[in-house]
Amino acid sequence: MIQTPLFLNLGNPAEPCMSLTRVAQLKLLTFAFATLSLASVVHAQIRMDDPYLSGRAKYEKSLKETKLFEQLAAEQRGFVDVPLDYEDPSAGSTSIFYRLPKAFNAAQPTLLFFYGGPGITSLSGFFERTLPDFNVVYFDQRGTGFSYLPTLADQLTPRYFSSEHSARDAARVLDHLGIEKVGVYGHSYGSVVATIFAHLFNDRVSGVVLEGTIFEGTANSRADLHRIKLIQKVFDSLSPGTQDRILELSNDGELPKHWFSSFVKPNMYGPNFETSLIARIENLMKNPAASIVKTVREEIDESYLRVENIYFASIMHHQISCQELSLGQTFGGWRSQFNGRKLAPTENADALYCASIPGLKERSNRTFKASRYPIHAPVTYIQGTTDGATPVVGAIEHYRHVAKGSAHLFLVKNGGHNPAITELFESPETQWHKKERHLISAIVREALQGRKADSANIKALGWLETSK
Predict the structure, then answer these.
(1) 219-270: pLDDT as tens digits
(2) Among residues 133, 155, 347, 381, which one has the fewest Cβ atoms lying within 10 Å of its Cβ?
(3) Average pLDDT in the 375-390 region?
(4) Residue pair 8/314 in contact by the 8 Å Cβ criterion
């Protein structure tokens, strides 16, 4: 029996593009799903493509019904056919969508970008704004955007999804474009695919940049405890009266017991998030209880994430996360609740979903471990010390155990999940952080070509540096 999430909202190419802030918040967010048989889903009160549309079909529909490519730089775009299963070529093929903001220029270096999520699509990248002297190659990883698999049955088949498949898909895109050498950039979950790509195709890689790095997809208690520590620090910094109010709300039944961690979570991506968040919570807790409950319910509601469209792919998110990132662990993950005045892990709402995916149990040995994929090309790590999504320990362990050649680890004090990429996606004309954006783009430009950044730029940004 084919099963699929109850709350999925499948495909609406006309839906306007999410803002970068919302896209950044999507990375590694988890959300609860129930399951139904496919026959039941068709009649459930959800919106989905009927019939199911492959990536190519979604693309054709988008061209007819939207002005997407009038708003999105994609001067050169197309599809590459790749095996559904590299371990079983007889399974057939699927199509991978790629785009280049400008026509390829052989005289310029090339950046190959791996998106995070898992599930974020290629329709939100803007490296071309700050790196105009690079060719930039974006592609929709299989099962996302315009790279949906041929049939719904394919999209729901676990063996057709793996980070290694996506890395090999990227190589096929480069083959199609005739590109031999690239600088690789992986952000968040994208660091997983970038690591595998750099290992498998070392001769094609000039340099690697990893931001928000994942070292292992195992149920890592250190990562969970680091997140809890960050949230606990926010709570401990609040006034005693505000703390008491939070504990009352956690125990009166109006809000789920994990509400505080879920409320803090979306605010943990940016730099220096504690200061503004503490002030906001202090002000919020001065309101009447009904007003607080209303605000919190709205902000911890993740139903808008239970979508399946050309900007975010929930099915692919779970196919990868359940197989390789231990999303099905019984405890841990993002949620925590108070035991007295201290936060402790709570039951993971995604465990039931992962357990329900047919064929997944047989692939339980697919958990990602970066140590299996040593990298010999030069690697540069950019890591926020207060990153709540991919804690700093992951970048440190990756640097120690995976980078076998030259490597540079830059720690951004109080930097969140996106200390560099937020600036790199911004328009260079934007005055906000203009100096920082210029310095970061200079560092990344050198790193992608396998060269060490100018120490003066590192010092000017106040980043901590370790090299080998």
Answers:
(1) 665 567 778 888 999 999 999 999 999 999 999 989 999 999 999 987 777 7
(2) 133
(3) 93
(4) yes
Domains present along the chain, CATH in parentheses: 3-218+368-467 (3.40.50.1820)
The answer to whether 197 and 170 are in contact (CB under 8 A) is yes
Please give the single-letter amino acid code of residue 356.
S
Long-range contacts of 76-79 (CB under 8 A, 24+ apart): 76/100, 76/102, 76/103, 76/104, 78/176, 79/55, 79/146
DSSP calls for 204-270: GEEEEEEES---B-S--HHHHHHHHHHHHHHHHTS-HHHHHHHHHHHHSSSS-TTHHHHHHGGGSSS
Report how far residue 77's alpha carbon sits from residue 74's, in angstroms, rounded to the nearest whole number.
6
Q: With contact defined as beta carbons under 8 Å apart, do 142 and 316 qualify?
A: yes
Task: Note whether 315 and 2 are within 8 A (CB).
Answer: no
Residue with tokens 């903001």: 101
Convert the pLDDT of each residue in 168-213 to its tens digit.
999 999 999 999 999 999 999 999 999 999 999 999 999 999 999 9
Q: Mean pLDDT, the chain, as a whole number?
A: 84
CA distance linking residue 361 with residue 274, whole number of Å: 40
- Tell me the three state secondary structure of residue 47: coil
Nearest CA-CA partner of 321 in 310, 333, 307, 331: 333
Helix residue spans in 306-378 (DSSP H): 314-324, 351-356
Q: In this structure, what DSSP letter does residue 90 have?
A: G
Q: Are 97 and 147 a contacting pair, CB within 8 Å?
A: yes
Burial class of 90 by CB neighbour count within 10 A (0 to 12, 13 to 18, 19+)? exposed
Q: Is 291 exposed, middle or buried (0-12, 13-18, 19+ CB in 10 A)?
A: exposed
**Helix 221-236 and helix 392-401, axial crossing angle in degrees, nearest 10:** 150
- Where do we find the tokens 């079909």? 57
E strand intervals along 124-279: 135-139, 182-187, 205-211
Rounded CA-CA distance 353/33 in Å is 6
Q: Are the C-beta atoms of residues 210 and 398 closer than 8 Å to each other?
A: yes
Q: Is 282 exposed, middle or buried (0-12, 13-18, 19+ CB in 10 A)?
A: middle
What pLDDT digit, counting tens, does each position of 428-467 carry? 666 668 889 999 999 999 999 999 999 999 999 999 999 9
CA count, 13 A, side-chain hemisphere, 138: 26
Average of per-residue pLDDT across 53-72: 89
Please check whether residue 163 is in contact with residue 368, taking contact to mean a CB–CB distance below 8 angstroms: yes
Q: Say how many CA atoms lie within 13 Å of 236 toward its Cβ.
A: 8
Strand partners of residue 187: 211
Amino acid present at 306: R
3-state DSSP assignment of residue 34: coil
The number of residues making up the chain comes to 468
